[in-house]
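Supplementary Methods S3. Input chains for the assembly prediction are listed below.
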Amino acid sequence: MASTTDVELTLASGGRGRGRSAAWKKIKRSRFLYLLLLAPVLWYVVFAYLPMVGVLIAFQDFSLYKGVFHSDWTGFDHFKRALTDAGFWAVFRNTIILGTVTFVFGFPAPILLALLFNELRDGLFKKAVQTISYLPYFVSVVAIVNIAMIMLSPSTGVVNGFLKLIGLHEIYFIIEPGWFRPLYVLINLWVGTGWTSIIYLAAMSSIDTQLYDAAKVDGASRLRQIRHVTLPGIAPTITILLLISLPSIVATNFEMVLLLQQPITYSTSDVVGTYIYRHGILNSEFDYTTAATVIFSIISLAIIFASNRIARKFGETSLW
Amino acid sequence: MKAEFEAVGSPEPKNWDDIYDALKKLKAKYPDSTPLGGRGKELGQNFRQFFEQSFTSGKSGQPAFNDQVVAFDPDKKEWYYGPTAPGFKDSIAFLAKLYKEKLLDNEYLTMDMNALQAKIKDKKVFMIDDYVGGLSGIGDLNPGGVLVPLPMPTFGGNAQILGYTGSHVGDRGTVLSGSLKGDKLDRVLQMLNYMYSDEFYDHLYWNPEVTGEKDGKKYYTNEGMYSGDAAVKDKYLPWSIMGGFQVDNETTTKAGTPYADYKLNVLTAEANKDKYLQQPILPFDTEQSKRLSEIQTTLTDYWNQTIDQFIVGKKSMDDWDGFISDLNGKGAEEEVAIYNEVYKKFFQ
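Predicted structure tokens for the full assembly:
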């Protein structure tokens, strides 16, 4: 006589079989969708997960000739060096400051711009201004930084021309450590604000116009309409974009920093990316810079976790 | 600009005092100008690099641009840290003085060729610091002006030793796999010996179109080599890479193999031995190379950042001792010690 457990097992096994078959049918039915999914999955495997094996060199006296699997192991030597290197902590601090400042100014800017656009009547002017605002997004970083440098030139730049016109001394912005962060933020705003505002404009366009009509009947001014209709209407979009943007506080635009920085401004402009570029790529310290990157990634992850927890505590949604 | 220097009575300044006087006169004549310019955006911090070359050297015998700042003193037969030479401090102080008096272009750090050309045309810059090849580009766009190359005066230092690139036999080697044993190893060594022999070299290079023979000695004709790297490469040496050696400002291109690379360094050293003193090439071991690399990256960052601060007046020259002390703290003394340790071991 079969015991209860045997019966249960047989039933469960039959159930799993039917489940697998159903799942396989589902996959077969949506095979083209899965095929589409294959490309990004492959991309992640090849370019994001497989290279993680390279993290091993952070624990090695890495030799290009010996490769990842035959280089000598050094334990945590490179980690110790990075953790005790004042230079590493200086660039770490710069990265966090630059990322945070950019986030603080860069996040609300597109919302403000979208609100302004939303108040404009549809027409040629609105279209022209919108196009001009997101045009820089399509220009290469190299060109953008070059244009900025020409505009900021102490001898021929328009900015210094204006300063001289109002009786002020010219400023050699590019070599002033104190000006690096404001410049970086301003250029980022110039490049990205118009583009990101499109998302908010799209959200605004889905707000029911009857709400505005009702507000007008109640005597609401334009500012009150923005406060009580537009902003609540786009609040879910703002929340989602805020959460998506959170990791940017530990990230900087490497190309822009590299092009904009001068050795004389290293005290504020040198970030983890440029530090690793010089030590790792230019000076072939692959092992040490991998260790530095691992440390930075762990701390960055902790910062993102903490930010997410705060968002969850004070808001209704979070990244996960 | 030749005409402008002639107009202020300094047709050919010989030293930095002459140059300073000429720049002052040009500034008096064109008050809006900053007579000395450069293109730091493309060439790095070029003014000071020229000075650095007088006081520093690379471990492979090349003058330092941004990294190795250790130099060899042939009289004392020891290595020292370049910036500690008094002349080096003088050279930076001189640049700081030019910058302060607006004789040096106040935006030289971020200038590129186009911007520099515009300044020359506008009579804002009359003297530039560039390599000889760079002059032709500027000349083409300034048909009315003539740029005269002047040898860069120095503030002392071992410029004679170090003012020349590639005048040394390179410290390259051949890596053999540890798994090579017995007969295989013998055969590889045999091949290497052959590759480093005159027989192989002659076999590789001997061709009437690129080489000649005089009084029983073979020589390399510039014409043949200059007829185009690609032509030589495709016609005679389809599998090789190209190298070059230099006597003064003339470069002779040659096809390269490990031996050819070595040989052209020997040829270069031979050709220049009367003009330039040689400095020892030090055989650092793996540990030493690794440690030097660590030190040099840190030092280079601090060095690049701080020297420009002295020049543009963000740091006072009174802080120079502190700068040297910081460099020592970041590993400069250790770097010199490693150089001297290896030098003593292998050369004394």
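Residues 286-311 of chain B form the longest helix (26 residues). The first strand of chain B starts at residue 36 and ends at 38.
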